[in-house]
């Protein structure tokens, strides 16, 4: 039976060449777009997570999310039994969320422009950490104040299958493989499409270790 190393190489063999792949009318996967930024991003990400460590959050329905979450930026997304919302303070410490790292903002603004959304001004970045088996159910990003701005989503570490649905939860979503350094941008007519992540396969990424980290930037306030 192949071990985690064999799986890792199998997944990497599937990685797409750099380029822009359209997955919706106003939605794109920018293959490998974040790779040139990784050396600047990782130390900044470590600083953010030292200040606001990952935590397991509970949904209003009482379920513990399998992905661990943190945030940075003027606003951070949180959930508990009372509902989903953005807050200016980390509920664990009552301190402001860590500032949005400049390299992260610049990468997101450039990626948004590459996908046709000029002047993206993110004020919130949700950070999701997936270990093997963790997933994200189909949902819409609806807690932002207006939907004119796109969502910019950066994948790091283990590969994932991203589910990109339509505007109805029941419609079968398309499955999009995402790899370390890929950036997905969706907005405009696609801004409220359902999306999620299938359970992450066991493995060890050469840079990120046994995890996938996703950084999702939005204009929330
Ligand atoms: O991890 C991902 O690729 C998607 C994350 C997501 O759906 C979200 O943060 O709303």
Automatic annotation (TrEMBL):
Coiled-coil boundaries: none
Keyword Iron found: yes
Cofactor: how bound: Binds 1 Fe(2+) ion per subunit.
GO terms for cellular component: cytoplasm
Pfam families noted in UniProt: 2OG-FeII_Oxy_2
MF GO annotations: broad specificity oxidative DNA demethylase activity; ferrous iron binding; oxidative RNA demethylase activity
InterPro entries noted in UniProt: Alkb, AlkB-like, AlkB-like_sf, Oxoglu/Fe-dep_dioxygenase_dom
Biological process (GO), any one: oxidative RNA demethylation
Domain Fe2OG dioxygenase: 121-221
Cofactor: Fe(2+)
Matches recorded under PANTHER family: ALKYLATED DNA REPAIR PROTEIN ALKB-RELATED, NUCLEIC ACID DIOXYGENASE ALKBH1
Protein name listed in UniProt: Alkylated DNA repair protein (DNA oxidative demethylase)
Keywords: Dioxygenase, Iron, Metal-binding, Oxidoreductase
Metal-binding found in the keyword field: yes
Binding residues annotated for Fe cation, in chain numbering: 139, 141, 195
